[in-house]
Predict the structure of Glycoside hydrolase family 3 N-terminal domain-containing protein.
Amino acid sequence: TVSLYVPTCPGRPRAARGSSSLVAMASSLRHCVLLASLLCAVSVAFTSVSGGGSGLGPITTNGRNYTKVCDPARFAAMGLEMGGFRYCDASLPYAERVRDLVGRLTLEEKVRNLGDRAEGAARVGLPPYLWWGEALHGVSDTGPGGTRFGDVVPGATSFPLVINSAAAFNETLWGAIGGAVSTEIRAMYNLGHAELTYWSPNINVVRDPRWGRASETPGEDPFVVGRYSVNFVRAMQDIDGAGPGPGADPFARPIKVSSCCKHYAAYDVDAWLTADRLTFDARVEERDMIETFERPFEMCVRDGDASCVMCSYNRINGVPACANARLLSETVRGEWQLHGYIVSDCDSVRVMVRDAKWLGYNGVEATAAAMKAGLDLDCGMYWEGAQDFFTAFGLDAVRQGKLRESEVDNALRNLYLTLMRLGFFDGIPELESLGADDVCTEEHKELAADAARQGMVLIKNDHGRLPLDTNKVHSLSLVGLLQHINATDVMLGDYREANHAEL
């Protein structure tokens, strides 16, 4: 088989989002690297492009855009005096400022900021915020209101799929990729085309190579998966390339981009026989849970200092991951000391009620159970017209006595402490000069090509047939028992690759 990787940027050919293709190209050796082997994985990554507006900064207030919440001009445009809001006093510790912010909100306003499409509270100068971002192997377009491409930023550097980069076993490379991705995110943020929170990397341990999301992960070894997460997350988040110094308050350390390790935990099935990812109950022994499924996440949080962990759809020994206090509040936040927030995989709380029918709970009961277990943010399915459960049922959960307002406050503090560290309120001077020229640079494209080279493994090269001479070889034939392109149909679940191969 032939593995071909094309680092894609503005003007480059692209495949449909979520697809994987074999593309026969040899137009530019600088932008296109052809590496072949008799047995090697196909890894072609593409970045989609869609429409988007232009402007400076993602925070829109009265028709103008801003890069930070606490801008005197922004408050003036709202008829407010910024000096009257202690949460905008940059001389105060982050924690004190967040307490002031949360204390100004009514219960109704608090609940409306517990979902991935947080509504803000104009009354106190708080803008809306879209928490969802994706950056597994490059900045991904998530649509209107979030990270998006357009005339100002037509596209971003697309690095090899994670399974390919992980095969390089090069921690320096993994960090370089994370650093490049975060630089492009921050540049796009300054241009009003991105947010600052990204739910990447995927560090689930692969148990079956047919799993449709295996290509998103670093593979089957818990230690390698963990080390990948540590290097990628550190590079995504660290502004100066170093973690907090001895004795430093990690909650006060500014971060470049928020990186989220997902999906916690024991998630490696999308559809198999009668099981699917929404109703699957992973029966895991304690030793296997600790040594296999929890280990990469522990490394991600403890050593990588990730600012976010995402819980998964599935149940673990009967209890949904997103309502499991032992997993969330006791382990992630307590034992591992997470300095950030915990978010649900999108629609996980509704899944407890609609699909798993866990304990016969209704929306109010599931919302209370998840938040009490340690879940801070509920990602809903807004693209299906469904509101997240925290926003929909949080108010009733408090009014019915199933949830305390102080528990809502605690979740909001975790969320807004993260945004404080990201400079969402104050900006980060070292990063404010980044712009369009820092996206899809020649350096980043060469890094993507080098990552593809390092991840390829040549098993055999009988008779020195490789590398192929692109001046003589103009077409390739893929032969095997899985009938060429239809090989993708053996993948298990809704994350299998679509049939978009081009030969």
The CA atoms of residues 118 and 229 lie 27 Å apart. Residues 1-268+291-305+415-503 form one domain.
